[in-house]
Amino acid sequence: MKVTLSVIKADIGSIGGHICPSRQLLQTVREHVAGAGKSLLVDNYISHTGDDIAILMTHTRGVGDKAIHKLAWDAFVAGTEMAKSQGLYGAGQDLLKDAFSGNVRGMGPASAELEFDERPNEPFLFFAADKTDPGAFNLPLYLAFADPMNTPGLMLAPSLGQGFRFVIMDVNHTAGDRVIELDAPDELYAIAALLRDTERYVVDSVWSRATGLQAVTASTSRLHNIAGKYTGKDDPVMLVRVQKDFPATGEILAPYALGPYVAGCMRGSHQMPLMPVGLDSGISYFDGPPVISCAAFAMHEGRLTEAVDAFAHPFWDTVRQQVSHKAVDMRRQGFFGAAMLPMAELEYTGIMEKLQQLEERFVVRA
Ligand code: F6R
Ligand code: MG
Ligand code: MG
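That is the input. Now the predicted structure with magnesium ion docked in place:
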């Protein structure tokens, strides 16, 4: 059976600043999807990561389907009404356009979609990150799909040994999707050269070279590229098919033990380590740290099992401690050097006006 997985997520308001949505807000979104989605969806799973609500849907309508996107958009519009009625902070903040125009892309919400022939056993992972941007997936995906130091399957499993194709997007190009296809391992250094620049080049998708099947789809939207100013971080989502001809779940999860520094956290303007957290958890320290959750599923004819929390295992408690130490260490240097993002990223915030005023006071000494 051909199944489509669509995940569409947005920040439409939260309690106590940018911590997490209210129960009633989540309930409103759930009820809308259950009602309006009845004839469209096979199944759905609605969760939050930090202040973002993600609607994961299974259906048979293919990617980019107008009715599916409208269902999610309308659920977020209904949620926004509830958020306003409760006085939640940032109510509707990611709904950047007034009227729906066929697809949520370019309208604020992030989306990632995959269509495939369901296997007899169909395991997949749904990742959602908050207080960071799509570049946060660059290193974990590189390690999982291109580095045998992380993924022994690249050496040990014949189909994985043929490598993977990375589709990488230049997110600075706003006139359309500017992408490049690069094959691992043949073009490893080219892939590395692009993926190191996490604010400009992000992974759009990853494909098996042995089977031609798609393993990964990730959201690539940059809110400041849409709004032209800072309206919140781009808090990405990602779907990853696992096992057999794809890396094992453990190979996909392993890179998150690094707690790599990513862009985001307070005012979307810092470099802070990415913490793997449990499902439906909030945000705290310094409007962060940036977090990533992972729900593991099996699926049959589009019907989902319950979500299993991939970062709930005690192993990740130690990682969270290490990430906390990294976060506090970095914060000790405040805004200096690597602690804050480079000017090109900050230019969407209010700092440009401040610098403009100072420009006039500069003098060239005789
Ligand atoms: C980060 C984020 C927060 C806010 C910060 C200030 O993505 O959303 O760190 O930037 O709390 O928010 P405002 O300007 O809304 O008071
Ligand atoms: Mg927010
Ligand atoms: Mg968020």
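The CA atoms of residues 86 and 171 lie 35 Å apart.
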